Amino acid sequence: MANFAPPPGTADIFPEETLRWRSLEKTAEKVFSLYGYGELRTPAFEYTEVFKRGIGTETEVVQKEMYTFDDRGGRSLTLRPEGTAGVMRALLNTDVMNGNEKRVYYIGPMFRGERPAAGRRRQFHQVGVENVGRVAPELDAECMAMLMHYLESLKITGAKLLINTRGVMADRIPAGEKLREYFAANMDVMCNDCRQRLDKNIWRILDCKLESCRQVVGQAPDYVCYFSDESRQYFDRVCRLLESFEIDFEVDPLLVRGLDYYVHTVFEVVHPGLGAQSAIAGGGRYELFLPENKKPVIGVGFAAGMERLLMVQDALKSSLPLAEPAPVFMVSMGEAARSFNMKLAFILRRAGIPVIAEVEEKSMKAQMRAANRCNARFAVICGEIELESGIVICKDMEAGEQYELDPVGLQNFLKPKFM
Ligand code: HAM
After folding, report:
1. Which of 263, 208, 204, 201 is nearest to 230 (CA)?
2. Burial classification of residue 18, based on how many CB atoms lie within 10 Å of its CB (0-12 exposed, 13-18 middle, 19 or more buried)
3. What is the chain's mean pLDDT, rounded?
4. Under a CB-based contact definition with an 8 Å cutoff, are residues 86 and 50 in contact?
5. Ligand 1 in reach of 82 Cβ (< 6 A)
């Protein structure tokens, strides 16, 4: 079967499962629209520069994980590894840079060349939101509240919200210096990656996963006290607002996030039911630069990994009730009856009734078995006698009762059952 498997780190999603994906999407639409968000759809690939400049050339995503290729016109393009940079590129075509706020959400596949593992794919899916154009701690707090509201609507309990502040760029110079002094003095026990991070991206040392590095990181100086008063007050207000919303959270000074555009608030939601890939969502406030733009686009947002949301729902056995498509099944005896039923099926479907019609000559018993296999709610039976009288038999598969109806009567009978 190996030949028929999709490429590593990707998956096929079959109709039974698609229902669950749709419930994540529908809930997103329902919850986010309560906060004034509308859906934005952007291309699945962008000019490579959008991500290099937007996410940062020193990030792992840009350095190691992007699917980049030249198209036939010689343009360098990249499959989007995340949604924010492309959304900002699209919003630059609006009046967002004049302080006019935009609230958008997006749903779709993202691509990162990571080592596949449980909860880690090369093509994965995110549902994300961006509140763009304004800076206010109220917006950061509202954004996290909306994420928690979304998770609650998906019946995901036990998730933990971790938050931290990255200050603004100017804060990171004095704070980064303090960290550099400390880490330089402890470099002999740290990993090779951290040695490189010392010069290139000191903040990434804070989330190194290696035990020897974590021990050093655990004793690192409290860098936030070197941030400006404004930055600390900003974060304090975010925390107070979350408290007033009665949202549980934990301040995690080691949370820095892997993308370079973040300023002020950063956050992640983790779930113990997930094992190693425990982050179900992440986000924060950002200043995102795009090629040719001297001024960054500002905003706050998050993205949740849809595969991981489903995994948590599985672990909690808490997926939403799914709308099972229980169709009407058309049983025909003979070719003329089949023609009659095919036409009737077409009429019923246009009236909003889901119908599956048997198209082969099969025994009544085989057709009723097929009706059961697709969970049909009703079977409509037409044979020679019914054809002559113009009256078909409609069998209620649950109640076991049956009715004799003409086509118009059948439609009137079935329609309210599928409203
Ligand atoms: P991120 O933390 O890189 O943030 O990704 C968000 C979520 O996507 C993660 O928490 C995880 O659930 C899921 N995810 C990431 N990589 C994978 C993967 N390889 N396989 C499965 N799931 C994955 C961002 O992407 C930012 N754009 C979020 C944001 C929006 N920040 C501000 N606005």
Report:
1. 263
2. exposed
3. 94
4. yes
5. yes
What would the two tokens of residue 29 be?
């639409």
pLDDT at 1 over 60: no
- Residue 91 amino acid letter: L
Length of the chain: 419
Among 24, 106, 124, 140, the mutation site with the greatest number of ligand 1 atoms within 8 A of its Cβ is 124
Query: Which of 126, 287, 306, 310 is the best mutation target for the ligand 1 pocket, counting ligand atoms within 8 Å of the beta carbon and taking the most?
Result: 126
Cβ 377 under 6 angstroms from ligand 1: no
At CA 203, angle to CA 198 and CA 208, rounded to 5?
85
DSSP characters over 156-204: --S-EEEEEE---HHHHHHHHHHHHHHHHHHGGGS-HHHHHHHHH-GGG
**pLDDT tens track for 123-173:** 999 999 999 999 999 999 999 999 999 999 999 999 999 999 999 999 999
| CA distances, 268 to each of 26, 190, 255 (Å) | 23, 25, 8
Number of C-beta neighbours around residue 237 at 10 A: 15
Q: Which tokens in the block code for residue 322?
A: 């799914």
Q: Which atom of ligand 1 is nearest to the CA of 280?
A: 12
Dihedral of alpha carbons 63, 64, 65, 71, sign: positive
Q: Is the CB of 283 under 6 A from ligand 1?
A: yes
Continuous H helices in 219-334: 229-244, 306-316
- Distances 138 to 134, 242, 245, 405 between C-alpha atoms, Å: 10, 9, 11, 61
Predicted structure pTM score: 0.91
Beta-bridge mates of residue 268: 162, 282
Measuring CA to CA, which residue among 160, 179, 141 is closest to residue 35? 141
